[in-house]
Amino acid sequence: MSAFTVVTPAPRDTWQRVLSNDRDALPDQAPEWVDALVAGGSYRDASRLYSFADGREVVLPLVRRRGLIGLGGWLQSYPSGWGIGGLVGSDASADIVSEVLGDLHRLGMQRVAIRPDPRRWPTWDGARNDGILAIPRRAHVIDLAGGEDAAWAKLSKSARRDVRAAECAGIRIETGHSGAHLEDYYGLFLLSVDRWADRQHEPRALAHARARRRDPMNKLQAIARHLGTRFVVTMAYRGDVPLAGAITLFGQTAHNTRSAMDRVRIGSTRGAVELVQWTNIKMACDLACTAYHMGESGRSTTLSHFKEKFGARPHDYAELRLDRLPWSRSDAAVRAIVKRIVGFRDV
């Protein structure tokens, strides 16, 4: 392997160039996303530009959180609830991934966590060693090769029927850039939290506290402010009543990062959720995105089935952890105990 140099934080002009030359890069991997992340004050930009002697360049978006009593600390790409990180750059081959993992290990941090692009997991999997903890994940992605016509053909018959039914029922779609419609979306989000809490046998107060900690309104507003027109809120209304909504990020690819609905208000009205998704898929095709990421699915068969209605394919991958101490295993053990105490059911 050729020698390499590291510059941190990564110079923005180089980062933007590497990003723009990578047709599969996610909008979460843009420097503006890190700007939104560090705006809250808990993290600082620790992105790393790797330049190799043979001319190849990649960027690893990273943020750093201070460790206990100021020692060690965590490097994350990214923290929980902050999307997909991993290497940016068309040069990110297995040998480069191996060198990057070795470099991160030598930093001696308390923890390094990387959640790579699910479609690029084989490259990461082939480069990691047995000392790296892999936490299994599953995500769904639609390949947008062929444009809108090909995307429509990938929809299941039931999905196409639902989209047409919503259009015939007069469901109104509005899209807002740079944070427009966030208030309406957030109201649906909190209603969805109640529904998830009931299904998971979790106290609603606890569910709301977790949800507001993970996704406070000021976090979403910061993302909207930094991403501008690449941050889109798509809402479905019946009259002036919001029924369903989604937040989607646009760049080289699209990432439907959050969705919510009011199941009670939707009632027997078919297709509001499907029409929101199809609107975003069409927008991604119009912007020449190469893929439409539909986010984490876990092991939920219901969620997987819904996403596969749109032609999304499952990608099994893993979040990688380099821990100096057993932070990840301890955290998992504590969470399991709390879930047993409250009778939490994973669904």
TrEMBL record:
Gene3D superfamilies: 3.40.630.30. It comes from the Bacteria. InterPro entries: Acyl_CoA_acyltransferase. This is BioF2-like acetyltransferase domain-containing protein. It comes from Kocuria aegyptia.
